[in-house]
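Extended Data, panel c. Modelled sequence:
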Amino acid sequence: MSSALPVGIFDSGIGGLTVANAIRKILPNEQLIYFGDTAHMPYGDKSPEAIKFYSLKIAKFLLDRNCKLILIACNTASAHAYHELVHFLGDQVPIINVIDPVINAMVENGKYKKVGVIATKSTIRSDIYAQKFKLAAPDIEVSSLATPLLAPMIEEGFFNNTISKTVINSYLTSPKLKKIDSLILACTHYPLIKAEISAFYDGKVDIINTAEIVAENLKERLISLNLLNNQPSKRHQFFVSDYTPSFVKSTRLFFGEKIHLSYKPIWD
């Protein structure tokens, strides 16, 4: 397999662009092909069966575009569809989720004793973080809290203002997050409100930016597979399953610059 081939990334919508942005900065020579399933967003309130179906269809789309690796830039899809995708893809291309790299990095750090997790309802219901921490480091206590208002709030541009502060404070004062020493932002939207969350804790809790950890893990994986691209690549490509002007406007928030979205109704 050629190292010049693109890296495929997908998410339930455009939140995964935060991961794509982190990858772009750490791996500037890699071409990215991004698919946002905006027709079915958010995945947080979908059934596991639906999420698996959507993920398999998107993986096939990325595979058809000769991606050398597929990254699930969505916590909910990582929780419910990762193993199905590994089975589906077999030895065709490697696949990475956004959960395992974060847990491994935190366990290796060795200083965390009580970890908080905030995410969509579906990710929290899966209990995936608690289960994986229990296997990797049984001494680490995990407290999880569903925060369903955060993603739509961010998509509508309500952050760094009184509205976002009120919503964030309401969630973070939950007894479930009492006495945590770290907080995992287990939704790809949440890096955009990391500063507000950090301000709430006044530096007393480590806020874990999963996008940066996942990007570093991808780099290590590509190096280990001898697939790291050392030459300038082609332009990134961004596809969505439903197209609206609001999606175009939001991409600048998540990716850091204006991008061209191509409408690709793969469900037809």
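The first strand starts at residue 7 and ends at 11. This feature is highlighted in the accompanying rendering.
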